[in-house]
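::Amino acid chain::
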Amino acid sequence: MFLWGTATASYQIEGAAHEDGKGPSIWDTFSHEPGRTRDGHTGDVACDHYHRWPEDVALIKEVGLNAYRFSISWPRVQPSGRGAVNQAGLDFYDRLVDALCEKGIVPTPTLFHWDLPQALEDEGGWLNRDISAYFADYAAIVADRLSDRVTTWITLNEPFIHMVFGYALGIHAPGKALFLDALPAAHHQLLGHGLAVQALRGGGAERVLITNNCTPVWPASGSAEDLAAAEAYDTLHNRLFNDPLFFGTYPDFSAYGIADLDFVRTGDLETIAQPLDGLGINYYNPTRIAGPGSDGLPFTDAGITGYPTTAFGWPVVPDGLRELLVTFKARYGTALPPVYITENGCSYEGVDDQERITFLDGHIAAVRQAQAEGVDVRGYFVWSLLDNFEWAEGYHQRFGLVHVDFDTQERTPKASYHWLREFLANQG
């Protein structure tokens, strides 16, 4: 069965930041620090999904989707990130999973979508190797409760973005600006993924995936300098988080002046390279790269022109998704498991969102073309079900199929929602 779904994330929609025993996350902390988010917006209430989830599940059913990718809030399940379990938090996800199953919607939970328990960040967060084991313990707790109904699991969401924005550049929680010293956060996330795969398998999981944010990398010109820069960027963005999964090795980091990843211990790569049942890919746009700049990195972002842009200013390049999928098939060969597009979407204002319809139609066509070229794609999830808290942008970017009035919490399906319902009905 091909999974037609939509996706959300706990901190972006749930609200109820301090209810029913939930502990603080790094985003609870970060968003309340002055200057961290646009206009000081926080996810304290967000879409109030914690209280309004039956209405949101009904919206998924009504549009005709057969899968829902949501994330589980680690601090709602384990307020301090380890030790005592908050049963009220597990109960919430238990009710949600039951409702999805009753409506014939495949629950597809992600265990970590950036809202790390603040108590663990106080111990170093993903820079602390111990967090990897705590993550596996948390995975086992959730699997024990839900794996009798949940068959498809995702361990991590976009570890590249979490490392770069959260630990290297400081524009997302936890707000650290460590640049290349953030690399241990990449390894410890991947190690946590491998350990969590083992825990999920032990808990009866049928299918386990990881979701990576990936991008086609375009050199700004055919010069040797730009080609080398593009290769260096591809190493950081794409290969760092995929090569260990499918090759069992890290890529060459000599372009960054790094000869040895001394935080990697014996046996780590074997743990990371656990067999997977699928790779989740989140695609938004290609990246155009030129030679080194003044910041010490071996590349600069040259920007992409000549394409339509979203309200976020991101270029709309549907064929980039086909290009990415075909590239990965060639790169990883038989090691590449089936692929699921776990996020693809765009930010536009208004309820009559014709631009989003054009965007989705073009990207779905790109998936079909990739399938025609031999890529085994088994799912497509639209980001996002609801307008929500868009991280450092607060409530200024609207990615939803459904408009949310953040004052009243009224949900209004957009033109794209109605288009998708007709599209799915025509799929049979």
Summary: The first helix runs from residue 10 to 13. The chain has one domain: 3-427. Residues 3-427 form a domain with the TIM Barrel fold (CATH 3.20.20.80). The two ends are 12 Å apart (CA to CA).
